[in-house]
Amino acid sequence: MNDLQNIRYIMVMILGVFGSIFLHAESLTDSTSVFSNFNFKPTTEGSNVNENHTANIGLSEFEEFEDCDVCGCGSSGGSMGYGTIGNGDFIGLRYITQQYQSRDGIYNNSPWIDENFNTMQAWARIPISQKIKLNVIVPYHFHNRQFIDGTSQRINGLGDISILGFYQLISPKLDGFLPEQQSKFKHNLEVGVGLKLPTGEYDRANNEGSVNPSFQVGTGSWDVLLASNYSVSHQNWGVGLLANYTIKTENEQEYHFGNQFNYGLNLFRTFNTMNAKTFTPVSISPVLGLSGEIFGENESYGLAVKDTKGSVLFSRIGVESTYGKISGGVNLMLPVSQDLNGGAVEAKMRLGIHLNFVL
Predict the structure, then answer these.
(1) Nearest alpha-carbon partner for 233 in 186, 272, 267, 182
(2) Residue 157 region, left (φ>0) first, then alpha (ψ -120 to 50), else beta?
(3) How far is CA 335 from the centre of its chain?
(4) Contact partners, residue 178, CB within 8 Å, separation at least 6
(5) Is 0.85 topped by the overall pTM?
(6) According to the model, what pLDDT value does residue 13 have?
(7) Fewest CB within a 10 Å sphere: which of 9, 150, 154, 216?
(8) How many whole angstroms separate alpha carbon 287 and alpha carbon 275?
(9) Which residues contact residue 329 at a Cβ distance below 8 angstroms, ignoring those fewer than 6 apart?
(10) Mean pLDDT, range 163-175, rounded to an integer
(11) Predicted local distance difference test score (pLDDT) of residue 46
């Protein structure tokens, strides 16, 4: 059993653990059960909020503190996102593995080969001001593919660094303690612009004999990133929408990858509780969604490269959890429909695992 198979089995086990948590998560919806031995009383409309505040902690205060921020369900590194559900500002690590099959040649009877794209990212969402956030992703790639004759090819190295600034156009209204100070729906809208830097190496030789030009650690080009995220939440339910566009330029080796459009829809439910001994807030958020990618046609020396455009639609299932300042999650994406490179490339699956420190 090779290292890649070991990684896959570990990921499946992690996903299974998170799945079992989801099946039992309904028991976490009533966070007051943790404090059954404490004399906590809900804050009523006619009560004095400042009176005996340390003893009379209203449930609405816990809900506001734990309220899930879906603005992180944006786009990036494929459709995995620039951020996560449940933590607005963070710094952390994310691992993404993608499996593809492509033809080892340009003919219809060319044999299929397995291609594995693996990426370890250092990523962060850093607050610059109340409405401005800076997103940074620094990837390191280690890809491999297996040929029909038993040989293999491996490439690795620093990938293309992405830097984006987001501006919050609509902010969710904070709830007060009184019923009339509670908002039924919370909306969030942010737009972003940034650059993808040519820090990863592009090698034309990797395209020889293969119809998949993406077997690279970098594109070698300066690209413009446009991003938008909208979310709406009601109580512990939330829906997130994203749309992102990448304008790509020609690299120094006169290869021009086609522009890319990403879109997504995610539905989640957050379950909140608290550690009774340490009073540490805990949340679990199962996620279901769809993510799509549309690729434009590539160009080489100014001429269109046949069968390089296409599209793919992924289903998404995952779960994210936060314990105090620590946040982690697993997201699995499986193709629903696809038409990549004239049918000569097929996406098999995409899996992401992240671990963050919430700022």
Answers:
(1) 186
(2) left
(3) 16
(4) 43, 45
(5) no
(6) 52
(7) 150
(8) 23
(9) 18, 84, 85, 318, 319, 320, 321, 352, 353, 354
(10) 88
(11) 39
* C-beta separation of 157 from 140 below 8 A: yes
CB 340 within 8 A of CB 290: no
Which conformational region is residue 87 in: left (phi greater than 0), alpha (psi within -120 to 50 degrees), or beta? Answer: beta
The pLDDT score that the predictor gives to residue 276 is: 85
The percent of residues in the chain predicted with pLDDT above 70, rounded, is 73
- Quick one: 111 exposed, middle or buried, by C-beta within 10 A (0-12, 13-18, 19+)? exposed
Phi and psi angles of residue 233, each rounded to the nearest 5 degrees, phi first: -130, 150
Q: Which two tokens stand for residue 74?
A: 């944006």
CB count, 10 Å around CB of 230?
20
Q: Which CATH number fits domain 3-358: 2.30.30.100, 3.40.50.2300, 2.40.50.140, 2.40.128.130?
A: 2.40.128.130
Rg (CA), the chain: 23
- Please choose, from the candidates 170, 175, 204, 167, the residue with its C-alpha nearest in 3D space to the C-alpha of residue 187: 170
b/e string for 236-260 if b means 16 or more Cβ within 10 A? bebbbbbbbbbebebbeeebbbbbb
Residue 333 contacts residue 291 (beta carbons within 8 Å): yes
Structure tokens at 216: 């690279």
